[in-house]
Amino acid sequence: MAAFEEGIVYEEEQRNPVWSSFTLAKEHIEALVVINLVWSLTLLPVLAALGLGAWPLWLRLFCLFIGITAMAASSGCVFCLVAKVCEDDPLTWSLLRQTMRENALNSVRRLAPLYGVFGPGLLVLALASSLHQPLLEILVQFVLLWLLFCSLYWGPLFADRSDAPSWRILRVSLRLAWRYPAQSLRTGVVVLILLLFGAVSLVGILLIVPVLVALLQTYQYRQLVARQRGHIAMLH
């Protein structure tokens, strides 16, 4: 049941989400590896665009566009599937196909605009640096870091309600990060460690790291939602 509805919350056991997510990953390792392998297929066009310098530029840009679009579509589906795993739902091919069919387009519509903010933000940061505008540079850095901090909750919020508009997902993520900075920081540090491990280990990226990050973020979100005790409608 969706935690964003008034008076409805997850009856989540109040445990450390880091250890809980690792324990759950151990119990459902096969399902999580399958989810991660399916997601990893979206990396192939991006790797082709970046690694095959002999290809014409237009073809590489086309592959890059296809890859980024596929990643945007599949990322939301990963969080939806991870939420199912958290509820001990068995992962079947029919569930995988149904999740992709029902959430892929919404993932592009809802999550892509949020993550896409970082691209223009980095361009503005580079422009501010080249123009020697330190105040603007500091401001942009602060905004980007705060958005990165809040992005810990974008995927789990999308899994809770895939039709919620992007601005509502952003609003609730800001609220959660503001109210629970210590818990969010703890999760962010562990996520960073996992991503660093994945960066130096291609096998880790292909097999488990991205879905483990999604699982950790989902567990943290579920725990914080349980603390709301139904007093706040999460996405309304």
Automatic annotation (TrEMBL):
What superkingdom does the record give? Bacteria
Provide the alphabetized UniProt keywords: Membrane, Transmembrane, Transmembrane helix
Q: Which residues cross the membrane?
A: 31-52, 58-83, 111-132, 138-159, 189-216
Q: What is this protein called?
A: DUF624 domain-containing protein
Q: Which organism is it from?
A: Dictyobacter kobayashii
